[in-house]
């Protein structure tokens, strides 16, 4: 083994021992449930100080308590990622408590499905606002803590969430597909502009992950947007049934923990030379 390889091995071993994200600070939006919750729990387990946010204050408080009970370091900042004051609110709170930001995980989002010819402007605009404008504004707000001089650099990354809908389109999701395609372009631009500062930016395109967005619409899950309830889910869906996943080689939906593991990989030193990439977490769908 070369001296350089030995040094790298020693460094990674030390990192693993303290956790892959030991001492690093991660902002995770949409952390009240689903993929965001699992990501927050996993990052905290791996030594990160996590700043979690969700529009649902009660769910957020529950996750915050879970992390504290497990010995993690956490700060909860409730709010709507689409609100004009949200980026400054969460960035200021993070820096005030922890003094820095290492990672931003733009996970918050929802679906507002309609066939293209019946999609009203507001259903299109709100999805673009939450899935594209909100991540852009949060990243921009955090710029001073990422565009740093070489001597101040640590492991820093941006992870934005896309979808197979953004890669291939999807029936009934003109708004969602457009937004999830746009966030890939945003991510690649961040990778090119901030790469010279040692910042990595990557996207995860999820396939069928078992969350409230892919559960049966008949279950009644909703989200309130501008005072109106929007139904979530897919009519008649049963992600656990292999027969409903004929185009997925693994013949099943993914779990939120598997989705979170991909987040950890891209944020961790294991992906130190991965930037501008779109990681497909799909069980093989689309190959």
Fold topology:
Layout: H1 3-18, E1 25-28, H2 34-45, E2 49-52, H3 57-69, E3 73-76, H4 86-98, E4 103-106, H5 121-141, E5 156-163, H6 164-168, H7 174-194, E6 199-206, E7 222-225, E8 228-231, H8 256-267, E9 278-281
Parallel strand pairs: 1-2, 1-4, 2-3, 4-5, 5-6, 6-9
Antiparallel strand pairs: 7-8
Helix pairs in contact: 2-8, 4-5, 5-7
Short description:
With 287 residues, this protein is of the alpha/beta class.
State the separation between the terminal residues, measured CA to CA. Answer: 37 Å
Question: What CATH architecture do you see?
Answer: 3-Layer(aba) Sandwich
CATH superfamily heading: NAD(P)-binding Rossmann-like Domain
Spatial shape:
globular
Number of domains: 1
Contiguous helical run count: 8
Strand fraction equals: 15-25%
Would you state the CATH class?
Alpha Beta
CATH level-3 fold name: Rossmann fold
Mean pLDDT figure: 89
Protein name: Ketoreductase domain-containing protein
GO biological process, one term: fatty acid biosynthetic process
GO molecular function: oxidoreductase activity, acting on the CH-OH group of donors, NAD or NADP as acceptor; quinone binding
InterPro entries: KR_dom, NAD(P)-bd_dom_sf, Sc_DH/Rdtase_CS, SDR_fam
